[in-house]
Amino acid sequence: MVTQLPRLSRRIGAIAESATLKVDGKAKALQAEGRPVISYAAGEPDFATPSHIVEVASAAAHDPKNHRYTPAVGLPELRTAIAAKTLRDSGLEVGINQIIVTNGGKQAVYQAFAALLDDGDEVLLPAPYWTTYPEAIKLAGGVPVEVFAGSDQNYLVTVEQLEAARTPRTKVLLFVSPSNPTGAVYSPEQTTAIGQWAEDNGLWVISDEIYQNLTYSALSEPVGTPGERALSIVEAVPALADRTILVNGVAKTYAMTGWRVGWMVGPVDVIKGAANLQSHLSSNVSNISQRAAIAALTGPQDAVEEMRQAFDRRRRVIVDELNKIDGVTCPTPEGAFYVYPDVTGLLNREWDGVTPTTSL
């Protein structure tokens, strides 16, 4: 008798579909049917990509030089622009040999874990978290270890919580500030404390900085007042730079989710390994999208500020309205474009004959 082997590999069978994209796909299907659906699924701005970026991309599409492959790691001009942004916004000076351009920030997240993890390596995963993180960790053979911070902590984990979760198998800390999905931003003091703890314990850090340019002031300040800068963990603790991968992209700041341009920044040896992976996995990012990303990073930033102020106005309204609901607690997000209400107070109460015990 022939032994029947599993049709699907264990690693692929163990991961779940992106909940974000599943809900977004359902919403888009209903919208296509003419249903009046408002989707809160995918994390993307509802603004058009700034016109000067689109114009550069349009011109690039007509240039035959952009009809060919680029280096797998990305156009040198784009990596130069990314290096300048990394110095400006993350306080870290890097060469272009420390940068890979990826098909969106999601690929950068996957490749970062794939480059660092062996089977059984543990990753400290502050929660609430973006649904892709644990699946990317598991796909790389790692083990996600959830470290939960509730609304009473403004969704910010502490060094004490991280230390309690650390084991001899812990290799990586995932650090996300501003956070998806809570909008929480770690203060400079908190970032420094966590970074120093990671350095003291010889841990790697993967820091997702894709929302770093979207921060807001306190609600007591006028709309549009710039918020406190989201301090990069490598600027807070420079010694961590040799064991940190920064993940970023143009998707959120420039309303370019569909253009699929992200990047990872890190030590030369790790970036070289990730580049080898990408050379087999996806080759290069679209030439046209890379040209558009250069225009985004090096061109005028007026539209970015207009979008940030619009997000601030919306933030104020939704936080205020949610907190009017009996049983709902909604901390004020200081970054990104999310709010994350705590609905614990609505549970175990009867609603039209139903007593929910979970928000799911």
Provide an overview of this structure:
This protein is of the alpha/beta class and 360 residues long. It folds into two domains: 1-42, no CATH class; 51-302, Type I PLP-dependent aspartate aminotransferase-like (Major domain) (Aspartate Aminotransferase, domain 2). 38% of the residues lie in helices and 11% in strands. It is built from twelve helices and seven strands. It has a seven-stranded mixed sheet, with helices on both faces. Strand 2 (122-127), helix 6 and strand 3 (143-148) form a beta-alpha-beta unit. Helix 5 packs across helix 6 (132-139). The longest helix has 21 residues, at 302-322. The radius of gyration is 21 Å and the shape is globular. The mean pLDDT is 94.
Strand content: 5-15%
- The backbone outline, from C-alpha atoms, is globular
What name does the CATH topology of the largest domain carry? Aspartate Aminotransferase, domain 2
List the secondary-structure elements in sequence, H or E.
HHHHEHEHEHEHEHEEHHH
* N/C terminus separation: 45 Å
CATH class call of the largest domain: Alpha Beta
Q: Which class best fits the helix and strand makeup?
A: alpha/beta
Q: Judging by the overall fold, what is the CATH architecture of the largest domain? A: 3-Layer(aba) Sandwich
| Rg value | 21 Å
Q: Write down how many β-strands occur, each being a DSSP E stretch of 2 or more residues.
A: 7
- Within CATH, the superfamily of the largest domain carries the name Type I PLP-dependent aspartate aminotransferase-like (Major domain)
Quaternary assembly: single chain
Number of helical runs?
Answer: 12
Main beta sheet strand tally, sense and closure: 7 strands, mixed
